[in-house]
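Technical annex B. To support the medicinal chemistry partners, we prepared a structural model of the target in complex with zinc ion, based solely on the information shown next.
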Amino acid sequence: MMLKPRNFPLWLDKLEALKRRLSPDHRRFADITQDHYYNKAGWRGEKELDYQLDYLVAAEDYVILQDLRLKGQLGREFQVDTIIIFRSFIVVVEAKNYRGTLYFDQAHNQLTQTYENVEKGLPDPIAQVKLQTRHLHFWLAEHGYPPIPIHYFIAISNPRTIIKSSPGYTEAIDRVIHAQQVNRRLSELQLTFRNSVLSSAELQRIGNDLIAADQPYDRNILEFYKIDRNEILTGVPCRECKFIPMKRVHGSWACKRCGAASMDAHVQALKEFSLIFGERASNRELRWFLQARSPHVVKRLMEKLDADCQGEGKARRFILRF
Ligand SMILES: [Zn+2]
């Protein structure tokens, strides 16, 4: 059963919001556009793996957990894409959405991707997942679980991607597969690992312990890209033509470019504010961001949205939850 499905990544939402709020000639615009592209491709790859896992028919109990961030050996954090726990073994699957031809080079622990005649070096995901499995072994021992075999796969989500490896690189040959093969390979593993290590109750307990230990990481995107808040474009965006800013006229928002009017266009702006700056905002900050004329306008808009508040007077903050 699926115990913890993955959510749409918050970081991808943040990248989208930031991209919309930077001028295309901003010094970081190209980097952010590229990071956004790769993050989105990664998300699509994970969804393709999920689609395949929907068909998982196991002869025994299993639980699936996705998108976990845990503390492993030496207190170091590690992230796992997908963990499938059976009673006799565990499988860690890392989805990769790579196109073109991949060449896994054992001597240099490197992956070379060739796409549209451009060759690019990437870190070898095999080394990455092996480290995750080491951390996971450590985590399980630390939480009092019996030793259990941990297997792993790198699932390439694009069925047209060609996978090659240096001769004798058995891990690349065995463990790097197309996402479409995952179910068949899991069935094979069920025949290999027949001795149950965990009871059904323990299986559930591991799943619940992992969820309890999950520490989602919430980075501040402005700090990450070293962008000052004054570089962010302010204003309420027009839903029809994307123009920023709309103007507040007689209690609604008006677009001076396409003439559209909206009662709730500020909701999108508030959502972007919370992704870029965080969910707590003063009246002054929102007035600046919405380009509202007075504190009363902000107060009224937030009252209509039934937004929670914390603090009094100057320390008063609206809590933006979307
Ligand atoms: Zn417009």
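Notes passed to the chemistry partners:
Residues 238, 240-241, 243, 255, 257-258, 260 surround zinc ion (CB under 6 Å).
The CA atoms of residues 70 and 119 lie 34 Å apart.
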